[in-house]
Fold these 2 entries.
Entry 1:
Amino acid sequence: MAGVYIHIPFCKSFCSYCDFYSITDNSLKEALVQALIREASLRASYLEGEPAETIYIGGGTPSLLDPDVTESLLLAVRENFRAVDNPEITVEVNPDDISEGYFGSLKQMGVNRISFGLQSWNDKRLRYLGRRHDAVQSARALDLAFREGFENVSVDLIFGVPGMTVADLKSDLEKTFAYPVTHLSAYHLTVEEGTKFGRMKKQGKLTETDEETSVSMFALLGNVCREQGFIHYEISNFAKEGFISRHNSSYWKQVPYIGLGPSAHSFDRRSRQWNVSDVKKYIKAIGSGEIPARREELDRRTVFNEYVMTSLRTMWGIDLQHVEEHYDKELHDYLVNLSGRYIRYGLMKRKRNTLILTDQGKMISDNIMRELLTDL
Ligand code: SF4
């Protein structure tokens, strides 16, 4: 199985925290779409016949595209890559872009999953984050999606924003769960260099949330989602039974994927490629039949370390049998030995032949993952 990702690198403006590659000049939209369609044909053999189980249109802001343009991208994917019978097809949307009829069009072309970039229900916080929508637009957009019959609906929230309290997060969660959403991605704010928040931090105008508050927020998040019947299947992701994101899970399970578009990454288990993060250069290169990508061959140690880091983030954990079969006994024993003290401290548990983080372990997951990395 494999996944296909299409990156739409356009935004109306930049959010204060975001370091994804996108541009605000929409004049290249048409040329970019043609280039994406061409890249799909140039890369048609990349997945070596493995069927695509998931197609994900992300960004940037995919909802800036007219539905017929989105449909032409999906057609290009279907023409160039074999898909399973019922692929998961996700489109990321921003609430301020949605017109009447938008979701109906997506449904007709086979889109079966919507991911809403809501981030918060508090208008003041939305403005601080540099978002362009408000809570009224979020409510309207969600209503339109459910009215159209979408069941697989995900909401993105951000917590740990400076000034935000645990009660604020509780309120955001309550307002989200007032809708029949089936998936939640909740990310703690990280202040990245090169963003508006990064510059504010350097100038001493932004103080990050203290650790105690962050830990309380993470605990609240887990508890509320559990009460709502959601499965905590990855550090930042929660889903109702049957609605775990197949696309995101494939990244964590090291399933091959292909990324089309500027800055998109591809992975075929042996190497990783990443396209140039420049819309103009991308369009020009694809126009002359070249894929503007850099490539890194992945050695055994790198693939193993990536496996440890990604699988430990999930409820499935590290599969020790997989390690022994796909790597070797030495790495298997290395993990078993090292995990011993985390198990004693209650940060990790061994369930059958897997190593899984406990709720306490999830709070310091980055530290644990760093210590498990090896240069064996
Ligand atoms: S968060 Fe989304 S909408 Fe905001 S700048 Fe980044 S990609 Fe664009």
Entry 2:
Amino acid sequence: MNDKKSILELKNFNLYIQDKQILKEINLPFYKNKVTAIMGPSGCGKTTLIRSINRLNEGIPDIKMTGEMRLYNKDLLEMNAILVRRKIGMVFQRPNPFPTMSIADNVLAGFILNGVRLTKQEKEEIVTGSLEKTGLWDEVKDNLHRKGTFLSGGQQQRLCIARALAMKPKILLLDEPTSALDPKATERIEELVNELKSNVTIIMVTHNMGQAERISDYTVFLYLGELVEYEETATIFDSPKHSRTKDYLTRKFG
Ligand SMILES: Nc1ncnc2c1ncn2[C@@H]1O[C@H](COP(=O)(O)OP(=O)(O)OP(=O)(O)O)[C@@H](O)[C@H]1O
Ligand SMILES: [Mg+2]
């Protein structure tokens, strides 16, 4: 199918920390402008997997990775990590706006921290455009000079998504982006993911099965570092092939 173009692909990817194998022979495509949910019990390697995609694990002592991650069919592990992070944005479990920066500067943080000079007009376009995309503009437009930390948790998380979107990433990694949020703020983020996916490929770790079912196109089930099952979301929820997936989805463990 033409719309099923993988922009990122893991091939026989293994990750070891101090001789302990954390991820085992992962083979996984991520399709363009689709949402892929990554599920699995605590400690199965979900965060490690998406941090590897954003090249954030490399400072860990005694880490070893084998196999391949191909971004647009180039070896992601051989690319410049800064360039990788421009193409691939990441949002963490707890909203983490920079506490000393204003709302506007938080949106521009990727440029400021990389020493990229922008004109006043470019800054305004990026701040307005990114905040509009996350539905925050109307809520914060009169307070752009105030610190990001004065916002509610849900607004802070949307600010963090705006900060990632400002760099025009091709891929957005979300690590349990709503686990620290109330149901209303969670619903807003879920709507946002649906809106964003026409322009960006989304990979989202979630423990929330309802959320995976509502907003993802594909679901990955990991268990003890192994990819147990990968399917279209409707298929995996309706008829999981593996007993471990079935047990997890029916909350027998996890
Ligand atoms: N920096 C590290 N040093 C040593 N071990 C690590 C490190 N980071 C992760 N691990 C180990 O890797 C395994 C996977 O951890 P990871 O955080 O990826 O799990 P997870 O699936 O995201 O769990 P959770 O659902 O609790 O967030 C765990 O056994 C963890 O102890
Ligand atoms: Mg995690």
